[in-house]
Amino acid sequence: MGSSGFDQVSVETLSRRLLLVTIFVFVIFSMLVFRLWFLQVINGQKYRTQSENNRIHLQRLSPYRGRILDRNGELLVDNLPSFNLYIIPEDIQDEKKLLNDLKILINLDPEEVEKRLKKESGAYAFQSVLIKKNMSRDELAIIQTHLFNLPGVTTDTKPRRSYLYGDFAAHIIGYLGEISEKELARGQYSENIPGDYIGKVGVEGKWQKELNGTKGEKYVEVDAAGRQLQVVSKKSAVSGQNISLTLDKNLQASAEVILNDKTGAIVAMDPCNGEILAMASSPSFDPNVFITGIDKTEWNRLTSGKDYPLQNRALSGQYPPGSVFKIVMALAGLEEGTITPEEGTLCTGIYTFGNRDYRCWKSGGHGTVNLHRALKESCDVYFYKLGRKLGIEKIAYYARMCGLGEKTEIGFDSEKPGLIPDNEWKLKKYGVSWQPGETISVSIGQSFVLVTPIQAARLISVIFNGGKVYQPKIVKWVGDENNRDYSEPVLLRELKVDKKNLELIKSALTAVVNEQGGTGSSARLMEVNVAGKTGTAQVITLEKEKELEEANESSDRYEDHAWFVGIAPAEDPKIAVAVIIEHGGHGGSAAAPYVKKLIKEYLGVDK
User: Fold this and answer.
1) pLDDT-based confidence at 418, cuts 50/70/90?
2) Active site residue 128
């Protein structure tokens, strides 16, 4: 009995204990199940992403940027390999040690690296941050050798822009620069991320989308040391489209040689379709410095230097046209019936209006001259009198009709419109009305009148192509060998003028170069009929010039600007050229010989 009672008690005790253990196990198991549910269901995506990113790294594959060629297929801009160093913030084990090691190995500034990491790694812990671009091969070898001891560090080879001829056509081609936060925020560069380089100006900027290409992606499995184990998946990058410019490489090179030690600009164009054959601006710059790295001193020189080397003077240089403007005056006078071709005007060397004397460049005067001779010998008094009869409103009307005072629409943001003044402009600018005496100075391309070299080249083109105002173009085609999108000529408008009047002006401009007494004889060629117009644009007033002479003070910066616009062959034009040499003196001697040289080279004539 006693034994049986003991057994009953023991069974009850064991039953209670088993129940407690069962309850305990159930609670623990429930907690584990809840925890697993929480981790896998509630936060499952988060931890799956972290797990994958710890094991799989995303590498963006940069496309090869489209190449740039001249009109004949000569390569001007290509791509070279660039060795870049990156850090993946999440993979860093000891940031202070890592930054110190990089300083010792390749002399990286720890503070700069730290700033870069903080700036770009906030929301993208697993995305690589570009720390150093364009490493040398020696630096690359050092990093690769020590990569096992540099957790978080990776290297990659990407294409780097290479401007094969340095500053050649730099103002047209443009340059690349690192994309800014503002540019990214605008959303127009959807293919780009921080650290990418995009076109800033010129063809590189205007045709950024076509040249850029499309990025690829590569998912790579790596070990704890960041060493690549295998490529999980890959989407190849798509190269950008090539661009063929309308430039003739040899003609461009000759234009740049001419301007080598001068300040000024040259524009050569096909007068019958607006294609730019050469466009040079001096001083220039080497766009490669924006890729390889530019120091503060060089940046200040480029952006703040007195000669403004980044300025494309061919498009944004606004100069008084001087006697080149007499082309417009002649057309206006003929069209309005203010003058006839045979009508004579007496030039004594001085034209008096009000209480002021306006002088002709020829102190003794030209005698009695008609339109043909007035243009040929560039008689100022003839055009003073013509301007007085026409008035500023009619002058402005014909100037704008010929494409002055407005952008040519070549497509670059840096282009300036020049200035053709009238009464409305002066009222708005100065709050006073236009004065008749001001028209006298405008008549010879002085006073407020401003034109750009590309406008001047188009002006003479309009006269010799029958009155057609073309939109200048710099790109011939976009695409590749198998698929090219050619750009067609764009005719903006055609002058509604009497063709006989254009012929009269063409005859006079041909005489400027080829007849005795013409101011542009320095541009004459024996084998080709060259036509043109000289221009000498005053930088300071005659009164100021006299003050300087009396003070025995002279300076090159007070010298006149030298202009010449030329075209050839006059009877069937193939090339028009505008040259301006800042502070060069007289257009006939300082600019006309350069137009002759370029026409001679382009047309392939000996003399």
Assistant:
1) very high
2) no
